[in-house]
Amino acid sequence: MMKFAKCKAPLLISVLLSTVLLSGCDGDDGHDGINGIDGTNGVDGTNGTDGSNGVSALVNITELLAGNAQCPFGGQQIETGLDTNNNNVLDVAEVDASQTQVICNVSQRQLSVELVGRYQSDVYGLSAAEIVDYHAASQTAFVVNAQSGKVDLLDLSTLTQTPVMGEAGYTLNNITKLAELDLNADTGLALLGAVNSVSVSGDLLAAAVERADANGNATQGNGIVAFYRLSASSLPQYLSSVDVGALPDNVTFSPDGSVLLVANEGEPNSDYSVDPEGSVAIIDIINNSPANVATLVGFSDFNVGAARASELSVDINITDPVLQSPKI
Asked: What's in the keyword line of the UniProt record (predicted)?
């Protein structure tokens, strides 16, 4: 046992020495490396120039009234284009015609009529209230009282929107007659007969009056148109009369009031022994006053054998009951 103990001592010492030697051989820790230098930031680029504003597109919508050639019941015309002059208005030169649209109404709006006023002339069986026109400034209706040779002035200022219903309407008489225009007295002309038509444009009134000829034929002479100046606060003032064709039956102003048109019927007498030709009279309105003379446009060029007879449609057949031959 003792030999075994002696033999182990040198081995233990050897192991201890190996351990010391191994520990002594560890190298020193290395130094930390130096941090690198940060790079400088890059220079920012400059901002770009703002672009110019774009051109605006505009739309223009125009209401088309009933009776328009393209839209009989009215409608809308829609125009578009670019506002090149930047005035926020779609000018005519800016309209893109290729983009214009027309939308027509497919039917006429339904008309609703209710009785709110009634005037009784107390003349029965005769033409005592035939043609009517209205002057807005004075709220006056001008009514042809044909057989009397006068024009009645009716006050519409007191009318309301309340309808009169049922049997009450049969006896209604709530419109007051203000005055009358006596065309015979105002013009001072002889042989005047019935007033056939009246028309108002602005503050100007025109009335057509038939006239007898020198042989006593009641309507075969050349008639007249009498003109009156209207006012919001006073009665009409007579201005002048203009000679027109035989039996002026209808008068109307052009929409801009620059011309008065007169349809002259040219009615024959009962036995056709006197048969004046029909015509159209044109009276210029200059500076809101009528010209002194009318221009007459006749139709004799279309008579059989006349210069323009070939232009007359074959669908038109005008026959003289006495001569039994075509005649205009």
From this structure: Signal
With beta carbons less than 8 A apart as the criterion, state whether 58 and 82 touch. Answer: yes
306: in domain: no
Burial class of 5 by CB neighbour count within 10 A (0 to 12, 13 to 18, 19+): exposed
Tokens of 61: 């919508």
Most distant CA atoms of the chain, gap in Å: 190
Rounded Cα gap, residues 192 and 184, in angstroms: 7
Structure-block tokens of residue 94: 């800016």
195 and 66 in a single domain? The answer is no
Tokens of 279: 């015509």
Q: What's the pLDDT tens digit per position in 214-263?
A: 999 999 999 999 999 999 999 999 999 999 999 999 999 999 999 999 99
* Pure H helices in the chain: 2-24, 183-187
Question: Of all residues in the chain, what percent are helix, strand and coil, respectively (each to 5)?
Answer: 15, 35, 50
pTM: 0.65
In the sheet that 75-82 helps form, which strands lie side by side, from edge to edge? 57-64, 75-82, 101-104
From 81, 73, 60, select the one nearest 105 (Cα to Cα). 73
DSSP sequence for 176-243: EEEEEEEHHHHH--SSEEEEEEEEEETTEEEEEEEE--TT--TT-EEEEEEEEE--SSS--EEEEEEE
Number of domains in the chain: 2
Which residue(s) pair with 211 in the sheet? 192, 221
Within 10 A of 78 (CB to CB), how many other CB atoms are there? 14
Domain containing residue 98 = 57-104
| CA 321 to each of CA 270, 275, 318, 324: distance values in angstroms, whole numbers, following the listed order | 11, 11, 9, 5
Cβ neighbour number for residue 257 with a 10 Å cutoff? 14
